[in-house]
Amino acid sequence: MCHPQLRTLIFVAWVLGYVAFLLSIRRMWTGKYVRSPLVRSLFVNMVSESEAAATETQEWYRCCPDLLGESLRPLFVQSHLDSATKAFLKRSVEKSGWLFTQLYHSFVSTVLSSLVSRTSINGFLGRGSMFVFSAEQFQKLLQISPEWRAERLLDLGAGDGGVTEVMGSHFREVYATEVSLPMKWHLQRRNYKVLGIDEWQQTGFQYDVISCLNLLDRCDDPLHLLRDIRRSLVPNTGRLILAAVLPFQPYVEVGGQWQRPKEHLKIKGKTWEEQVTNLSSEVFRRAGFEVEAVTRVPYLCEGDMYNDYYVLDDAVFVLRASDSGEEFAQ
User: What pLDDT shows up at residue 327?
Assistant: First the structure.
C-alpha cells in the first residue's frame, strides 16, 4: 500500500504540474491569436473604436434583409453595439486577467467536469455569466418605453439571472426556472420566484411575457415546450421572447455529458437568414406563433484564462400566439 506521505507528494506534484501546464498554455494563447483587437480597443478606451473593432462588431449584427423570407423583411430590427454590451465586454476582459482566480476555476472544472454539468460548475464558481441583449435593445424589440410595466415575466432556463435582470424591471412579478441547483441559488438571491420545470405551466395564472433564451436547442422536447409556452401566455397581449443560436445544433447536457434530444428539430438553411426564415415559417407557424420582430445579436459569455469572452450567433424573436396557427400534433 502506498505510504500516505508519498500519496500527498504525488498529489502536490500533480497539482504543480497542472498549474505549470496551464501557465504555459496561457502564455502561448494570450497573444494575437486569442486576444482580439476589438476587446483591447474596448478595454483601453471605451469611447473611441478603431476601424478594426468596428468591422468586427458589424459582423455580429449583420443581416441581409433581401435573403429573409418576404414576410420577415419588414420585421427585422437592426441592432448595434451599445454601451451595455461594451460594459459586459470590459468586465469579461478584466475577469479573464485574474490569473489565480482563473487557475482555480480551471482546476475545479477539471475535477468536477465528469460529475456535474458545466452549468452547475459555473454556478458554483460564480462565473460564465451570459449577455443576450441590453435593456435598450429589449425595449426596442418589444416597442416599449423605459416606463412600461406589466404583471408577470417568466424566464425559462434563467441561469444566474443576469439576463432576467435586464427584463425584470418592467414587471411586478418575476418568475424563473432552472435545472442547475447552484444557478437556482443565484436566482433566489436576486429574489426571483423559482419554479420547477414541471410547475410553471400549472400555477393557475398566465404570463405577460415568457422568455426562452437559447433553450430550444438544449431541451429534450422543444416542440412540447413551445406548446406549453403558448398556453401559458396571457391571451392577445402575451408575448414570447425567443433566442436561438444559429446554426441550430441541438444537444442536451446530462451530468457532464452531451446527448441528442429525444425530440429533434431540423432547421434548414446554410446562412443565418435562411435558418431564421425556416424557423419562422416551419417551426413557429406550426406551433401557433407569428413573428412580430427579429434581430441579430451576439450571444456573449464571460471568458476564462484562454479567451476574453466567447461569442455565438443569436437570432432573437418576438412572437405572439396566432389563432390561425396549426399546432403540432399532440
Answer: 47
Half-sphere exposure of 82 (CA within 13 A, CB side): 14
| Phi/psi at 94 (5° precision) | -65, -45
Instruction: State the cell numbers at 285.
Output: 407557424
Distance CA 216, CA 218 (A): 6
CA quadruple 125, 128, 130, 135: dihedral sign = positive
Q: Rounded to an integer, what distance in angstroms lies between the CA atom of residue 75 and that of residue 212?
A: 20
Q: Which of 109, 52, 84, 69 has its CA nearest to residue 298?
A: 84
CA–CA separation, 144 vs 131, rounded Å? 20
Within 10 Å of residue 191's Cβ, how many Cβ atoms? 9
SS3 309: strand
The DSSP secondary structure of 119-159, one letter per residue, reads: HHHHHHHT---EE---HHHHHHHHT--TT--EEEEEEET-T
Asked whether 177 and 196 are in contact (CB, 8 A), the reply is yes
pLDDT, residue 175, reads 98
Residues in the chain with pLDDT values less than 50: 25-37, 39-41, 43-44, 46-49, 325-330
Angle (deg, nearest 10), helices 51-61 and 37-44: 110
Asked if 227 and 262 touch (Cβ cutoff 8 Å), the reply is: no
d(CA 19, CA 23): 6
Q: What residues contact residue 296 under an 8 Å CB cut-off, 6+ apart?
A: 60, 61, 62, 63, 79, 272, 313, 314, 315, 316
